[in-house]
Amino acid sequence: MTRSSATPSPQANEANETNEGTDFAEEVSLPCVLSFNASDPTGAGGITGDALVIASVGAHAIPVVTGAYLRDTRDTVGHAALDDAAILEQARLAAEDVPLQLIKVGFIGSAEAVAAIAAFTSDYSSVPVVAYMPDLSWWDAHEIDIYQDAFRELLLPQTAILVGNNSTLRHWLLPESTTTRHASTTDLARAAAELGVSYVLVTGLALPDGQIGNVLASQQEELCTHAFERIDASFMGAGDLLSAALVGLLATGLDLGEAATEALQYLDQALDHGFHPGMGHALADRLFWAGSDAPDGPEPPTESGTPTIFDIPNPFNETKH
User: Fold this and answer.
1) 3-class DSSP state for residue 146?
2) What DSSP element (H or E) covers 102?
3) Which helix (H) or strand (E) holds 69?
4) Across the 321 residues of the chain, what is the mean pLDDT of every consecutive 10-residue run?
5) Angle, helices 238-251/46-56, rounded to nearest 10 degrees
6) At what angle do helices 141-150 and 111-123 cross, to 10 degrees?
7) Residue 102: strand pairing partners
8) 77 burial level (CB within 10 Å; 0-12, 13-18, 19+)
9) Distance of alpha carbon 75 from the chain centroid
10) pTM
């Protein structure tokens, strides 16, 4: 994964110049990405996943929590939304302090939160927005309609790049089309462009050879296409990972085609190194690149013959509860 250096903004330089006596005043700072997303207790996606991915590709995440998923690795059963005023205040305080290169919008949980974030992104109209629309089939159909209608009307007009699975985006953006199943990716991009979106990054396209296709498109053409071998596992959080990688790489200075290509390669590697932490879906390993180079081998046995990593003694503590 290529890591690009970033040039500090004038605002960041001015802030550094006021901190007399600091040793790092003239160091190059990391590009900063503000991410709106929900907390995910499984670690599959959400705001913690965004922070890991954005850091992995060489940027710094400004995480703004919008609520919390209620789920395990098997199913999502609900979402607890955070008050829209609290979401807006988190973002406002951070953005007034830290210069932003890009904004990512993940799952924000309510139409009220969509309106608040749309007001925020309008105030920072010079900062590009990358939006990700996840699969919401776990949610009540009426809630989905309210949420997606608000997103369509308020946030898509301010979105530069929309990321999503082929099925999710087609059901949302081409609901009345009789040719939805056979429409091209540029047809989907045209539907998004009518709402103000410049580009779409569409994933999960079934290809004849059994591979999975992913396409970056504008309303005029497909800009780049990448196909990967299908992995024999069902994953959670892949779309969040891809959109976070894309926004982080764009923040480091890559152009859109390069950023999309590297983000997809990062996703493919993270899925290839995936694991099952629980009894449900697999999770991607966002830190696959940090794995040990030491050769694999069996764990040394303990006296009982059971492999172990750490022998942690029970501390002596007189405190009683």
Assistant:
1) helix
2) strand 102-105
3) strand 60-71
4) 42 46 58 97 94 96 97 93 96 97 97 98 97 95 96 98 95 74 83 97 90 94 92 88 97 97 95 90 90 51 46 51 47
5) 40
6) 10
7) 33
8) exposed
9) 19
10) 0.83
